[in-house]
Amino acid sequence: MGSAIWSLLLVVFLQIYIIAATTDAGDSTALKSLAAEWENVPPSWVGGDPCGDGWVGISCTDSRVTSIILPSMNLVGRLSGDISTLSELQQVDLSYNKGLTGSLPASIGNLKNLTNLILVGCGFNGPIPDAIGSLSQLKYLSLNSNGFTGPIPPSIGHLSNLVWLDLADNQLEGPIPVSNGSAPGLDMLIHTKHFHFGKNKLSGQIPAQLFSSHMSLIHLLFESNELTGSLPSTLGLVQTLEVVHFDNNSLNGHLPLNLSSLLNVQDLSLSNNKLTGPLPDLTGMNSLNTLYLSNNSFDLADVPSWFPALQALTTLMMEHTQLQGQVPATFFELPNLQTVVLKGNRLNGTLEIGPSFSNQLKTIDLQYNSITGFNDRGRTYKFDIILVDNPVCTARETTSTYCELPPSNSSPYLTPPSKTCPCSSGQISSPSCGCAYPYTGTLKFRALLFSDFGNLTRYKELEQSLGQFFLSHQLPVDSVSLSYPKRASFEYRLLLDLAVFPSGQKSFNRTGISMIASVFSNQTFKPPKELFGPYVFDGDEYEHFSDEPANSKKSSIAIKIGATAGASVLFLLLVLVGIYAYRQKKRAERATKESNPFAHWDSKKSSGSIPQLKGARCFSFEELKKYTNNFSEANDIGSGGYGKVYRGTLPSGELIAIKRAQQRSMQGGLEFKTEIELLSRVHHKNVVSLLGFCFERGEQMLIYEYVPNGSLSDSLSGKSGIRLDWTRRLKITVGAARGLAYLHELANPPIIHRDIKSTNILLDERLNAKVADFGLSKPMGDSEKGHVTTQVKGTMGYLDPEYYMTQQLTEKSDVYSFGVLMLEIVTARKPIERGKYIVREVRLAMDKTKSLYNLQEILDASIGLAATPKGLEMFVDLAMSCVEESGANRPTMSEVVKEIENIMQLAGMNPNAESASGSATYEEATKGGSLHPYSDDSFAYSGVFPASKIEPQ
């Protein structure tokens, strides 16, 4: 009888467990099979419910596993064919696990929903299975830096959605496959932008059929293979190309004459081949930055007369190419020229550099030629001129520096700690002088658009770009540090060691490492495009996980033993289930009360330690559910990193905006209460008003006044249909400035916004500007007057570089962001657009001696430039003073307000008049008569135009 009862209890317990589990049973079994093949799986992989138990690296949608993201986890083992049973899998990233070996299972072709297969820097080998061509949804295929052998599977040609194809740095061999009849080939990949096949053993000729005018290729990398034959003329049909590498092969024959038609190519590298014939005239390749043609056997010819026509050229490498004659002095006048290497040729005569050489020149290397003289014009040049083993140096004894090889420079760090920071236990000092265990690896750049390797400013820009990327994507990173650059050979132009330091702790947990490593394996991070081309990252093993238990080296045998032991004690645990469940219920009730700071808060009280809210009320979840029609999709007006924004309607008919946090973005209860207390004290016509909040059922919601005309960003881009002429832009600018000045100087306590940008300036029905989104705002207490040291937060492009470098936050950081916003208002360009930073672009183009400061190409034409808007130059001057590098040189926001008011008066406007401008489009406003932009008939919110989406961050 007793055994029957226990058997019944066991069955009931197992049924309850199965019902409670949130993972599909088949998916759970498949993941356990993978785990059984691997050593060093994350410690969280111990429960029986991967989705519900939060297995590190596993993401689910409903009950199905949709992604496995485990880069740099020190995994050891093989990839089980059971992965193919995860039929809803969309992303797999196992990069930088060098202990993962063996072949890819052919059954991987069953993953019909897979979009990303990223296995960079592992130890996989054997042939790439032909079944990979069955992954019809695949967009990113990165199998580079493994040991794959055999041919490139022709079936890859079936992957019509493929954008990124990287099979570089393997042992692949055989010809480049192209289609023929029923057989597929790479020529079918007309939407693919990246062909990365360098560092393999591919052989045979390059098929002419591989290229066509329909292709979208940007990067074409076939360097360091065994390719033969000539470069086909069909290459000139691919007009989208930006980087072309065929160096270090055995190509021969003449170069196609239509190479000059590749007008977008920035990096052309054909060195170390057996090319012959004449050099084609490359005049017209106005984007060409770097040209590598060394170690070929071109026909004996004078230095091409078209060299000076390559206006964008930074680097010319033509060693051992049989050039003869003199290098024209005009060549050195190219404005961007940095490096000229013409060693081992037959150049002769006297070297002339001329008086107007490029101010970026760093090296002119003409070793092993027949140059007999050098007319230095009595000058001392700041760049290296190397004439070693020329008659000018060997015919007579000379002590001239150009007859000696220059010394090489080296330094271990780009950003050394600002002071000595001794660290113990193997920890490393970060740039901010904190001791921690960083995540490390090597950035390997396959192409560069510069050759001035000693200019640390370029690497600083990369370092800052990395830091801002991690910041904007809310990754747990304090700072980054790059090593001094190391030049590499054919395969990689540049190597940089990278160290990423954790924020607020000594080491990363597995989730943090996974997020950071996948940034590089998935190529999510894009370096500054105007300097750095394609790259690959080699991540190091990480051995200091903060979530690692004391005995971290678990093998699959140990896991099985643990599972057996667990089963043995299951019988004893059953009897405690009832008691445990009862206690857990009581504990959960207590925890809910403790975690809810509003549980016993009577909002009508205002004495003692209970906070007082000024004008904000507490809404119930049921109220907000009713006001938004159950948070319907029709009421969804925007989304961002914080969560979603819904439009609601109060019983009075008043519209409200409800900002609802998603689970991962929630603050702690006390922090949420502090934010509400702060925002409830902010009352200004140019600041969005907080009406209330909701803190029920695990929800965090903020209720704001509804601002119908969306964001300034929407209007500048044309998305909202609102026409912004010069007077409207001035009105919006002064409103935003007044709101920000209020926060800095009149709010109690003063507030630094930290995220001023066009998406956080909202426009009401009269196009009055309202500063919004205080998610990153920082109140300044009396003890923090002047500055406060804090973790850097903000948005890339608007971020104050002084704040980023020093972590010292002041009101002047908001002033910098506002200056960028002003430039955005007059240009209608995003701060960073196609790799160009608006502050730098304006600074370079600006010429105060010319009309409109010579900014006509940058300014937004819809302002009405033909009539030269009054005060526009003053507006630009003010913006540029706001973005001064030193915060001490920037104006305060009250000074900014006064100057904008002066500009408005110059433009014939009353700075204190209430705007009556609405949101009708230009066409609507002009129907039936002349344009009257401030007509009462043009008021916006009447249902004519849909409300623009609000974009919270």
Write the layout of secondary structure elements.
Elements: H1 2-20, H2 25-37, E1 38-39, E2 58-61, E3 64-69, E4 76-78, E5 91-93, E6 99-102, E7 116-118, E8 123-127, E9 140-142, E10 147-150, E11 164-166, E12 171-174, E13 194-196, E14 201-205, E15 219-221, E16 226-228, E17 243-245, E18 252-253, E19 267-269, E20 274-275, E21 290-292, E22 301-302, E23 315-317, E24 323-325, E25 339-341, E26 346-352, E27 363-365, E28 370-375, E29 384-386, H3 391-394, E30 428-429, E31 435-436, E32 439-445, H4 456-472, E33 477-482, E34 486-487, E35 494-502, H5 510-521, E36 535-539, H6 556-574, H7 577-595, E37 617-618, H8 621-627, E38 636-639, E39 643-649, E40 655-661, H9 669-680, E41 690-694, E42 701-705, H10 712-717, H11 726-745, E43 751-752, E44 761-763, E45 769-771, E46 778-779, E47 788-789, H12 801-806, E48 808-809, H13 811-827, E49 832-833, E50 836-837, H14 838-845, H15 872-882, H16 893-906, H17 922-926
Parallel strand pairs: 3-5, 4-6, 5-7, 6-8, 7-9, 8-10, 9-11, 10-12, 11-13, 12-14, 13-15, 14-16, 15-17, 17-19, 18-20, 19-21, 21-23, 22-24, 23-25, 24-26, 25-27, 26-28, 27-29, 37-41
Antiparallel strand pairs: 1-4, 2-3, 30-31, 32-35, 32-36, 33-35, 34-35, 38-39, 39-40, 40-42, 41-42, 43-46, 44-45, 47-48, 49-50
Helix pairs in contact: 11-13, 11-16, 13-15, 15-16
